[in-house]
Q: What sequence folds into this?
């Protein structure tokens, strides 16, 4: 079977969806770290959304060449730390098995650090290379 305890393994609420609906639900699950329909911690959610807007603003300023690379990396690192806290509180699970699989298990703090860190490293590197490719960031 797997390394996780059978009691911990579960399927996401969208596991029966097919095709484009499945991809859309999967993307939303990765991009929206708060539990759907959760009314708890609305203040934390609002603060987090404001900080996400600031991280996006940092990337926009970088696109215009108004932000040095160190500030871009620092803002992205700060967002990653916040996302770890959000996911730990609202979606403390990770995929069990291959990336194309449909099984999830409860995540430890280190699981979430690795998941968020790797995901944001890939996204940040792609954005950084795109900005460098258009000449907005000079290293």
A:
């Amino acid at each position: 079977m797997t390394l996780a305890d059978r009691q911990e393994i579960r399927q996401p609420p969208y596991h029966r969806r097919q095709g484009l609906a499945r991809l859309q639900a999967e993307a939303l699950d990765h991009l929206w770290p708060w539990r759907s329909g959760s009314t708890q911690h609305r203040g934390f959610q609002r603060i987090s959304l404001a900080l996400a807007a600031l991280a996006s603003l940092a990337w926009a300023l970088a696109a215009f060449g108004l932000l040095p690379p160190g500030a871009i990396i620092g803002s992205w690192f700060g967002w990653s730390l916040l996302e770890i806290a959000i996911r730990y509180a609202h979606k403390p699970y990770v995929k069990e098995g291959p990336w194309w699989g449909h099984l999830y298990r409860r995540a430890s703090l280190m699981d979430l650090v690795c998941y968020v860190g790797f995901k944001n490293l890939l996204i940040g590197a792609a954005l950084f290379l795109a900005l460098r490719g258009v000449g907005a960031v000079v290293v």
